Amino acid sequence: MSFEQTQHQQETRNASERRWLPWVAALTAFVLGMALTIWQALADHRFAQIEQRREFVEAASGIVDAIELQLSDCERLIRTFQSVFLASQEVTPDEFRLIFDNLRDDRARVNLQALAFAKRVVGDGRERFITSIFLPIRGNESIRGLDVNEQPSNLLSLLESRDTDEVSMSAPFPLRQTMGKTSAVDGFILRLPVFGKGSVPTTVEERQRAFVGSLGASFRLPNLITSVVPSNGMIAQVVVDDMTDGSPRRLHQHGLGTADAAAHHHRQQIRFGGRTWRVTVHGLRSAEVSPWSGSILWLGTLVSALLAALSWSLFSTRERAISLAGSMSQRFRASEERFRRLTELLPSLVVVARRHDGKLLYLNAAARDRLGEVAGARMLGDLFDEEAFAALSSASEGASLSADLQMIPALSEPFWANVCVSSIEIDNVPTWLIVASDISQQRQMTERLSYQASHDSLTKQLNRREFEARVSKALASPGAQDCALLFIDLDQFKVINDTSGHRAGDELLVQLASMMREKLRPTDTLGRLGGDEFGVLLAGVRSAEGAIQAAERLRRSLESYIFNWEQRTYTISASIGAVMLSKAGTLKELFAHADAACYLAKEAGRNRIHFHSDDDTAITSRLTEMEWASRLRDALREQRLLLDYQELHPIQPGVQEQMHVEVLVRLRAEDGREVMPGAFLPAAERYGLMPAIDRWVVETAISNIDRLHPSGDGLGTCAINLSSSSLEDDSLFQLVADLVKSEGVDPGRLLFEITETVAMRDFTASSALISKLRALGCRVALDDFGAGMSSFGYLKNLELDVVKIDGSFVQELATDRMSQSIVRAVTEIGHQQGLKVVAEWVSSTEMLDLLRQVGVDYAQGFALHKPERVVFQR
Questions:
Q1: Does the keyword Transmembrane helix apply (predicted)?
Q2: CATH annotation of 455-614
Q3: In 3D, which of 742, 808, 799 has the Cα closest to residue 773?
Q4: Among 397, 499, 603, 694, which is most buried by a count of CB atoms within 10 Å?
Q5: Which CATH number fits domain 347-442: 3.65.10.10, 3.40.1280.10, 3.30.450.20, 3.40.190.170?
Q6: What is the pTM of this model?
Q7: What mean pLDDT is predicted for residues 234-251?
Q8: Which fold has domain 630-873?
C-alpha cells in the first residue's frame, strides 16, 4: 500500500472520528444530566417527606398549645371573679351578672358551660356547699341549689383548691347539665376558693377557717377540644386521656378521617390544676407519591436533551461558528450606527472630546442646538468656567464624575446642567464622554421651594422652624455668649383684627415686619413665630445692657408707629421678653425663658421689656407653672388623675342620715408618686386647664357614684367642686344633665360646690348655673363662706342648699372670739335661709363640741375622717 493511500485512509478515519465525536459528546452530556436529575428527584422526595412530618408535628404541637391556652384562659376567667369576691364584702347576683356581661368578649367564655358560686353552709353537724349563683341561666337550670357533695370529683377539687389557694381541676365526670342526654364523661370543673373579709390566709388551717365558698367554672370536654382542632387536611384524630392516676382514662376522641398511626402520630402531656392529660394526635393517611412522578424528572429529561443538543452543536458547527462571528460583526456595526442615530435623538446633551487636548470630536443634535457648537469648532474648556473645568479634569482614567455645573454656550447666557463625565477609550484614544441635562428650571424651582420652606408667606421673614434652626445653631456655636434672644408679642393685636378685619391685621404684620427689619443690623435675625409673635436673634451683644438697648429701640419704634386703615388710625405697642443665649443649655429652655419674660412684661402692664435673670423669682414661678401645665396635659391624656373622698358627719344629736362625701382630685406623677392639688391646680387655673379637670371629675364621679364609697348605692350625697373657669363653660350643665339621664342617677345625690370668691366675682354666671342645676334636681353649696363678710347680703339672692364655713375661722374657733362670732353669725343666717351649715377643717374634738353648741349641722375634717381613695380606683 502506497503512502498516499495510507494518508487518505488516515484522513478518512479522522473524518469518521470527527463525525462521531459530536454524538459521543451529546450522549455523555445526556447521561450526566439524567444522573443529576435522578439524584435531585430522590433528594426532593426525601425532603418532602421530612417537611410533611415537620408540618404534622408543628400542627399537633399547635393543638396541644391551644388546649393549654384554653385552660389558661379558663383559669384567668375564674381568677377574675375571685378578685371580685376579694374586693367586695358580698357579691350580689346583679353584680355577678354585670361582671359576667362585661367579659362577653373573653375567649374563655366560648367554651364555658357555667360559672357558679357555691356557698359554704354548715348545719346539722355537716358541711355543705350549695350552688347559689350561676351564669348563664339558660341551659344550666339543673345546677340551681346543687350540693357539691353529690359530685365526689367536684368536691375533691373544691377541697384541694381551698387548702392550697390555687386553681384545681376536677377529674372528668358527666356534667349534671348533660345528664340524660349522654352518659359519657364530658366535662370538668375548675375550682378557686373564696375567703372572708380580712387578711389573706397563709396556712391550711387559716384557709379552712376563712373559707366561705368556692367559685367553679365548668367546661365541656368536646367543645374545648373540638374548637382547637384545625381542618387542615393533616389531622385525622385527636385523643385525650387523663393520666393523673397512672393508667390512661379516655376523656375524648375527636376524629376527622382515617388515621395513619404508624407513620404520623405525636404524643404530648399537659399538666394543669393538679391533673395530667396526654394528648395523642394522629395524622391523615396520605397516598404515597413516587419520586418519579414529579415535574423534576420531566424537566431534567428536557434539560438533559437540550444539553446534549448543545454539546452536539458545539462540536459540530465550527465552520458555522466562524460564519456566525462574521454575521455578528456586521450586526454590531449596524447596532453602532443605530446607537449614533439614537444619540442624535436624545434630549440630553452628548459631547465627546479628546482627553489630551480637549478637542470636541462629536456633539449630538441637542448639544449643537443648545451650545451653538460643532465638532472641532472650540475646545472642551470653552464650555465650562475654570473651576468647573478643573473639577472635570480631576476625573481619573476609567472613572466617572457627576456634578451640577454651569455650561457656557457660544451665543447665549450660561445655564446650569447636571453633567456626567466618563473617561473612556474609543479606538484606543483616551476621550471624555459628557452627558448633560439642562436643570435651570428645576434649580430655580428648588431655590423657590427652599425659600418658601424657610420663610413666612405673609411677612417674607423667616418662619418659626427656620428661626429656631438659626437660634439652635447659634446656641451651639462658640459665640453663643455674645447673642441674645428677643420674644416680641404685639399688644391688643386682636382688637385690630376684630374691628377692621383680618386683612387689616395681615397688612399691619407686613408693615411692622418691614419696619423692624430696617431697625435691625444686617447681622441680626428676624423671624415670625406665629400669629402676632416675632423673634429676634441679636448677634454681637456682649452684655444684658446691650440686649436691653436693642430691645428698647424696637419697642420705641413700635410704640411710635401709626397704622392707617380705611380712615382709621391705630397705635401699636409690644411686650418684649429678652434672654441671653448663655442662660440656657437647650433650645426649649431658651424659648421657655424668653416666653416667660414676655408674659411677665404683659402682666406688668404691656408695652415694656422684661429681661430674664437667674434670680428672678417671677420667672421661676412662671416656668414651674408652664412645666406643670405640660405635665397636666399629659396626665389628662394618660388618665392619671385620681379621686379621694372625705366624709361629712352630722354633729347634732339624734340625726341619723345616709353617708355624705366630698370628692377631691389628686394626680399620679410619672414616677408613681401621688401629687396633692396645691402643687398643680394654680397652673391649671392660669393655663385654662381647669374646665377639662372639672369635666373629668364630674364624668368620673357621676358615672361611678355607687362605687365611690364602701356604702355603695347607700351613699347619700356626693359633693363636687366647680372652679371659676367652669362657670363660663356653657356645655358643663348639659354634660351634667346628660350624665344624670344616661347613668340613671338621682340628681338629689349630687351637691355642687362653688366658692364664695368665685360666686361673688361673677355673680350673674354663678346665679345662672346654680338655677339650672337646682332646676335639674341637684343641690348647690357655697364653699369657703365667711372670708368676706360683706357678701352676707348675697345669700338671699342665691338659690342654695348648703353653706360651708371657711376653714380658717373653724381652726381658730377655740382661741379667737371673733372667729366664734363669725361662725355663729354664718350659722344663724344660714338657718334663717333654710340652709344646712357645714364646718370645714375640723381637727379636734374640742372644735366639734364648740360647733355643736353654735348649731352647726355637719362637720368635715381630719378629726372625723381622713381622705381615702375611692373604691373603684383602689
A1: yes
A2: 3.30.70.270
A3: 799
A4: 694
A5: 3.30.450.20
A6: 0.40
A7: 85
A8: TIM Barrel (3.20.20)
Q: Which of 667, 601, 590 is nearest to 623 (CA)?
A: 590
- Of 393, 391, 386, the C-alpha closest to 404 is 391
Alpha helices in 88-175 (DSSP H): 93-102, 152-164
| pLDDT score for 502 | 85
Q: In sequence order, which ranges of 152-294 are alpha helices (DSSP H)? A: 152-164, 204-210, 221-226
At the fourth CATH level, which superfamily is domain 20-314? CHASE domain (3.30.450.350)
Nearest partner of 107 among 134, 68, 64, 70, judged by Cα: 70
How does pLDDT run across 810-848, given as a tens digit for each residue?
A: 988 888 888 888 899 889 988 998 899 999 999 898 999
DSSP code at position 486: E
**CB-CB contact of 705 with 719 (8 Å):** no
211 close to 162: Cβ distance less than 8 angstroms: yes
Sign, Cα dihedral of 784, 790, 792, 793: negative
From start to end of 243-332, where are the E strands?
Answer: 249-255, 265-272, 275-283
Nearest residue to 442 (alpha-carbon basis) of 474, 469, 417, 478: 417
Residues recorded for the chain: 874
Q: Burial level of 515, CB count in 10 A (0-12/13-18/19+)?
A: middle
How confident is the model over 271-320, as pLDDT tens digits?
988 889 899 988 876 655 566 666 766 777 777 777 777 776 776 665 45
pLDDT, tens digit, for every residue of 479-512?
A: 788 899 999 989 878 878 778 888 888 998 999 9
